[in-house]
Amino acid sequence: MPHPSPSPAPRHEDAAVRDVLTAGVAEQHAALRAWGLPPVRLLVLYNPCAFRCFFCASAGTSDRAADDRTPWAQIAGHLSPALPEEQGRLIVAGNEPLLHPDFDRLMDLAADRAFHHIELMTSGTPLSDPARRTRWIQRGLRAVAVPLYAAVADEHDAVVGAPAWDGLVAALDAAHAEGVRVEVHSLALRRTANALLPLARMVQARWGTTLAIAPLRDKEGQFDWAREALPLDALADRLAAWPTDVGVRLVGFPFCVAPEAPRGAADTIGLYFRTQRRAFAPLCAACTARPRCPGVVEAQLRQRGDAGLSPFRAPSPGTSPGSTGG
Ligand SMILES: C[S@@+](CC[C@H](N)C(=O)[O-])C[C@H]1O[C@@H](n2cnc3c(N)ncnc32)[C@H](O)[C@@H]1O
User: Fold this and answer.
1) Model pTM?
2) CB–CB of 96/122 below 8 Å?
3) Which positions ≥6 away from 53 have C-beta within 8 Å?
4) Of 53, 61, 119, which is best to mutate to test ligand 1, by the most ligand atoms within 8 angstroms of its C-beta?
5) Which numeric CATH code is attached to 15-304?
6) Which residues line ligand 1 (CB under 6 A)?
7) What is the pLDDT of residues 130-171, one digit of tens each?
């Protein structure tokens, strides 16, 4: 599947990963397998988003022209019948899939094509329409991956630039009660650093899942990355002080930051954050975890160098196995 419509290539996104999201089915499966992920169908929709998240809103997302969207022919072309190895799994993501005018039609076609386990990445507001939600669940919606930036409305709404939290949380409660898995992610931002623990508690208590925290990626200098991104050592200090009964997962952070915290996220969230372009500091050259480590977002290296990184070292002869640093 060719790229749906021209949009400025974001400088801090990994172009190879981004291309996979909009590639043909065989190419997607090959990439997913190479990343150790199951061969699901990926459908990424381009269309304007109604939110104005300060780190995202741009010409290609919120300011996109209404008619500059993934056309129906392209959606239908990508939804060929589900292959046995896909086990009915379809991931739908994009700028804001629920605002794409063909979304309902897409769900009908996906059901006809035997996709019965559909995961959706969305900022979620239209989930509050009970009739549409029920229809999507009947068609195979099984999981939603949504961002939340705080456990209270004002703080979240300030980040997304719209009154969203109250309706979103009520919609997620309703979807959860109807059997939809609710996966939540947030970003390591200075402005919401105090919100992460209450948010993780809320996610666990309300929806029985584990909050994933991801790094902030620079975006063509449209915001001040150094002012907004929570420093790596500040994140690690916070997580070290968390009560042990509150779960959290890190996605897209180097392994030496809070190494005791579990890594990973729902496939939909993990896939999205693979698009962040990352690199390594010179300090990382001898790190024993480097072959498996995702590295750090580029802005970190440019603006903070190796601050907060502490590579794992191979034990020198005579040291105990537990003293590998990090
Ligand atoms: C591009 S949005 C699309 C789906 C949906 N509209 C949403 O808000 O989740 C997907 C995710 O990208 C993340 N995102 C956007 N810009 C980012 C940036 N500059 N750095 C890190 N994450 C970003 C947000 O957390 C968001 O949840």
Assistant:
1) 0.92
2) yes
3) 159, 160, 161
4) 53
5) 3.20.20
6) 49, 55-56, 95-96, 121-123, 147, 187, 216-217, 219, 272
7) 999 999 999 999 999 999 999 999 999 999 999 999 999 999
